[in-house]
Specification:
about 375 residues, alpha+beta, Uridine Diphospho-n-acetylenolpyruvylglucosamine Reductase, domain 3, Alpha-Beta Plaits, 3 domains, about 25% strand
C-alpha cells in the first residue's frame, strides 16, 4: 500500500476526515524512524505521512522562538538553529532520520534532559489536525503564553493515536560558550553512584550526567562503570568542573570533536544496538535516584542511565530475555516497559505490563479524539 503525504495541513485534514468518515483505519507516521518503538504498527486501510510538511515557518533568533512543520527532519532543524548557535536540546534517538513531529509524538529525549527537561518543557505551541478535519491551534509563539497548552501536552507522547501534529513551536536555548566532557571510571556501581550524589549536591550544574555499566563502557574502550559529565559555560566554569571532578576520579577529558563524538555515540546507542541485534530489545525503567544503583546492577548486558533523572535503559540481544527481565522487574515494583523490539515479537508480547492508574484516563481521552479507534491502533504499547 502506498503512503499518502499531503503537501499542506488543509489536504492532510481532508484525508483524515474522509478516512474517519468511512471508518477506514489509519496508520499515521512521519519518517517511520521509530517503527520498532512502542506498540506494533497494526495493518491499516490508509497510510498517511506528514513528511511533506517540512519547512520552518517562523524563526526569531532574538526572541528565542521557532515554529517548524512536523515533517521536517530533526537533523535539518538542528542544523538551521545551530547556524545561530541556538538549539532545542532534546537529543532524541534516531535523530538522523526522525522528524520533528515524530520526536514530539514519541516524547523522545536524551542525556541533556538532566538540565533542560523534556518536550513538555520546550514546546510553547502546536497545531494539530483532528479526525473531524479541523486544525487546532494550541499555545503560541510567546514563551509565557500558556493558553491551550494542556491540549498540546496531550499530543506529546501520544504516538499519533489522537491527532496529526502539523506544526510545533519551541522556545530555544543558546549554545554554551564552551563545552567539555569528563569520563570518570569506577570499579563498582556503588562508587559511581556515590560520585553522582556528590556532584548533585555540589554547585556544579552539568547538562548531562550519564552512567554506563561495564558492558556499555566497553564500547568506549573502558570496561568500567563510567560516569560521564557534560559541562558547559565560560572557560572559568569549565576549569571549575575539571578541578572538582578530579577529586572524585581520574577523569578523561573530551574536547571539541571528541566531545561531540562521545555524545553522538551515546545518543546513537539504541539505533546502533538494534541494527547489530535485529532480534534484540531495549527496556526502559523509571526509578528514583536512590533506586538507580539497584536497577543498573540488575542488567546483565549493556545499560545506560540518565543518572541525574532516574531513567535507565537496558539492552538485550534477544526479546525473550527482555520479557523475562521485565517480569522480574515488575515483581520488584519497578516501572518498566519494553521500549524497542521487532515488529513480529511485539504483536503478541506484553510490552507494558503495569501501566498504572492513568491508563483508564488515557483511554477516555482516546475515545474523545477517536471514538471508533481508527488512528494508529495499538501504537500506545498495544494498550491503546
Amino acid at each position: 500500500m502506498s503512503v499518502v503525504a499531503p503537501p499542506n495541513s488543509e489536504e492532510l485534514a481532508e484525508v483524515l476526515r474522509r478516512a474517519a468518515l468511512h471508518s477506514r483505519t489509519i496508520a499515521l507516521s512521519g519518517n517511520s524512524s521509530k517503527r520498532m518503538m512502542a506498540g506494533p504498527i497494526a495493518p491499516a486501510d490508509e497510510r498517511i505521512s506528514t513528511a511533506a510538511l517540512n519547512a520552518i515557518l517562523a524563526y526569531e533568533p532574538h526572541d528565542l522562538t521557532v515554529s517548524v512543520q512536523a515533517g521536517m527532519l530533526w537533523r535539518d532543524f538542528a542544523c538551521a538553529l545551530a547556524a545561530n548557535r541556538q538549539m532545542v536540546p532534546l537529543d532524541p534517538p534516531f535523530a538522523e532520520e526522525a522528524t520533528v513531529g515524530g520526536v514530539i509524538a514519541a516524547n523522545s529525549s536524551g542525556p541533556r534532559r538532566r538540565l533542560y527537561g523534556t518536550a513538555r518543557d520546550m514546546v510553547i505551541g502546536m497545531r494539530f489536525v483532528t479526525l473531524e478535519g479541523k486544525e487546532v491551534q494550541s499555545g503560541g509563539m510567546v514563551v509565557k503564553n500558556v493558553a491551550g497548552l494542556d491540549m498540546a501536552k496531550l499530543m506529546i507522547g501520544s504516538f499519533g493515536t489522537l491527532a496529526a501534529i502539523t506544526v510545533v513551536n519551541f522556545k530555544l536555548v543558546p549554545m554554551p560558550e564552551t563545552e567539555r566532557s569528563f569520563v570518570l571510571p569506577f570499579d563498582s556501581a556503588a562508587a559511581a553512584v556515590a560520585a553522582r550524589d556528590r556532584i548533585l549536591k555540589s554547585a556544579l550544574l552539568p547538562a548531562a550526567l550519564d552512567l554506563l555499566n561495564p558492558e556499555a563502557g566497553d564500547t568506549l574502550g573502558d570496561r568500567a562503570w563510567l560516569l560521564i559529565v557534560r559541562a558547559g559555560g565560560n572557560p572559568a566554569a569549565i576549569e571549575r568542573y575539571q578541578r572538582e571532578l578530579a577529586e572524585l576520579a581520574p577523569a578523561a577529558v573530551y574536547e571539541d570533536t571528541r566531545h561531540e563524538s562521545l555524545w553522538r555515540h551515546i545518543g546513537n546507542f539504541t539505533p546502533q544496538f538494534l541494527k547489530k541485534y535485529p532480534d534484540g530489545a531495549v527496556v526502559r525503567v523509571s526509578c528514583t535516584l536512590k533506586g538507580l544503583e539497584a536497577v543498573m546492577a540488575a542488567f546483565d548486558g549493556p545499560a545506560i542511565a540518565r543518572a541525574g533523572t532516574g531513567v535507565c535503559y537496558g539492552y538485550f540481544e534477544r526479546c525473550e530475555a527482555a520479557a523475562a527481565w521485565i517480569t522480574a522487574a515488575v515483581q520488584r515494583g519497578w516501572k518498566a516497559f519494553v521500549e524497542f523490539a521487532p515488529q513480529a515479537w511485539r504483536e503478541t508480547a506484553v510490552l507494558w505490563p503495569a501501566p498504572g492508574g492513568d491508563l483508564e484516563l488515557m483511554r477516555k481521552v482516546k475515545k474523545l479524539f477517536d471514538p471508533e479507534s481508527v488512528l494508529n491502533r495499538g501504537r500506545m504499547f498495544s494498550r491503546i
